[in-house]
């Protein structure tokens, strides 16, 4: 175990990434537990206010992210300073992305249907961090041999092609596949060759005069959403809590 740790984590300089990812996930989990307790009226926690102003946890999250980011840049990644900066950055990122929906909508939508976006972004970020920790590099660089890496033309061509596949997948309305495809090129290729979602820019541009292709895209999207909508919502509710059914601006939750 010690040999594996040194060879796969310490020597490649992945310890800061591991610490940042662990701090990110742990901070998100603790934050969600606290906010759900507050929502249920349990525990000693309450609103954080300064002069009557409600301070959302995205605020200290931004501060921690900035401090950790600059600290990581200024520190040696193999030293203690880099490890501390990674933990601070991970904590800040966890607080910020937990309120990603609030930033996106510029409103307190934490417990609303729109608030599910925060959970989606956190899960996506954690998954990408795990892929990077496992050794995957953006745009297929990890798939190149040492000789190909030394050949700038081959490396740039591979990166450009994988980036193009990810971009096509994104234009087809497959955002999650595009993001994962930036790390795992085969995923981007699958997203690039499959039918676009009917409301995507690709469909509006290329399916306008192809009614059969558009009808097929609509049917496939309907079947996909019908199959995965309920499991996805159940998973999101398990992690982040069930959204508030009330409409309009929601009251402070803390």
Describe the structure.
With 254 residues, the chain is mostly helical. It has a domain at 1-135. The chain contains 12 helices and 2 strands. It has a two-stranded antiparallel sheet. Strand 1 and strand 2 (53-54) form a beta hairpin. Helix 2 runs parallel beside helix 4 (80-98), helix 3 packs antiparallel against helix 4 and helix 9 packs antiparallel against helix 10 (185-193). The radius of gyration is 21 Å and the shape is flat. The protein starts with a helix and ends in a 14-residue tail after the last helix. 27% of the residues are buried. Residues 247-251 have low confidence and may be disordered. Keywords: Membrane, Transmembrane, Transmembrane helix. This is Integral membrane protein.
- Principal-axis shape equals flat
| Largest sheet entry | 2 strands, antiparallel
What is the helix fraction of residues, given as a range? 55-70%
What value does the average pLDDT take? 84
Count of helix runs: 12
Radius of gyration of CA atoms, rounded to a whole number:
21 Å
Q: Sketch the topology as an H/E string, one letter per element.
A: HHEEHHHHHHHHHH
Low-confidence stretches: 247-251
Strand order of the largest sheet: 1-2
Structural class: mainly alpha
Distance between the termini: 43 Å
Share of β-strand residues: under 5%
Q: How many strand segments? A: 2
